[in-house]
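Morning!

This is the sequence you dropped in the shared folder:
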Amino acid sequence: MDTITTDHIRALYQKYEKDLRTVRDDLRRLLRDRGKSMKAQLDDYEAEITYLLLRDLRPEVVVEIGTFYGWSTMWILSALRDNGTGHLHSFDIVDHVVRNVPAELSAERWTFTKVDVREHPGKVPAEVDYLFIDADHGARFARWYIDNLFPAVPPGTPASVHDVFHGRRPKPFSEGSVIVRWLAGNDIAFFTASTAKAPGVTRELALAKRDLGLDEPVRDGDHNPMIYFTLP
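The structure's back. Tokens below.
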């Protein structure tokens, strides 16, 4: 994956505008219908950017570490469905996601495994085309996946990590502080639409979405703390 820029994401909004509009409407309706049984984690920009990148990258194997209630799972599966190819392997220690993901999204494109991947790393597929991490947000977990998971996936794998930039800097002793320090130490650039870290990016994307008529929120929440990068 080439280095992500705001211009690149803006172009993806334009390229996939029709399909994204449908996904936004469908998931907004699903979130409303699920009520309290569904707690959405991703904010709109990071959810949409994930969808757009997956549409453009067309991965065959996506690995998701951490599902919780399945909001990110449904955005990922929507992208794979709209691509007409790809399979998602999701891992979590809880299985709330199983009752929330609609059958028409999961059928033949999703495998969920209830497990702590730290104890069973061999369950993660050897061939990974996109890695999505949104699980334990402690420093210890970040050190684990840097030391154990990153080396196990192919070099050049696109990746994203959630809950990094809720503020201008990651919280001390957090997953975010560990991963940002590791990226800097390896001279790896990252992209974020965090409203705290990159308000200029958020403003530019807001204008792009307004021009396309995609500015009605899918859900409340405007932190967008996720980061995107490519593994060395």
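Headline: The chain has a mean pLDDT of 95.

More detail when I'm at my desk.
O.
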